[in-house]
Amino acid sequence: MTLNIGQRIDGRYGELSPQEQRAADFILDHMSDLAVYNASELARLSGVSKATVSRLFRRLGFQDSAEVREHARSLRNLGSPLGGPGASAGTPSRLAAHAEAEQDNLRRLLVTLEDGRLDAAARLVRSAQNVVIVGLRNSYPLALHLRQQLVQARDHVRLAPLPGQSLGEELAGLGPRDVVVLMGFRRRVSGFGDIVAAIRSREVPLVLIADSSARKYSDQATHWLECPVDSVSAFDSYATAMSLMNLLATGAMGAQVRESRTRIAAITSVYEDLDELEAPW
Q1: What is the pLDDT of residues 115-129, one digit of tens each?
Q2: How many CB atoms lie within 10 A of CB 223?
């Protein structure tokens, strides 16, 4: 396995000179910006010479700053966390950049939904006999949240696989009258393509929700909802993805308003019988 630049620094930190350690510390604290810095900028910002930065890159197995920038871009595209424990996430400039990135993600999502694909996906989810929501790794919290929202609007919604269980038994028995909502945000499991193929081979309608790295699977989906997760911080941001869960569930609820309201009323009655929720006053 090829080590990323942060892992390479961690593995050789004790061998570096004090000046090289100073440059390495700056890199670890500003990994999210590494894709745009050249050697001269890194030297100036970290307070060392350009020769020191170049020597550090060679120690870490890179030819030059151009290769380092390309390496950083590839890490960002793969969803690898970029940033170090010293990164200043709460400064005003960082907060402003974070807010702008979040707004840009949301704007990009809404543009892609203008062609009606969200409404079509919501109608499919609402009319299906069974809805199975699949989310592994980073996608699991989103899948769990969508299930919680959809179950307010309709019956026969389940999450798969359950913790510690496998996926095969959840897909067996599904057919054209059902739907699978599959989440595939980056850093997916290695068998993700097999999951897509298994769903389609059974002629089960598929709503695929993921970032652009899953676009290669989009032609196998009944509906493809691309959701950006780009971030200026160390980790991908799923704020826009959570907004999409809200929109999809709301659309499914609105597709059959009377039935949804009847179910919500029934759920509320059971809440009261079980005294499950805190009073709002």
Answers
A1: 999 999 999 999 999
A2: 22
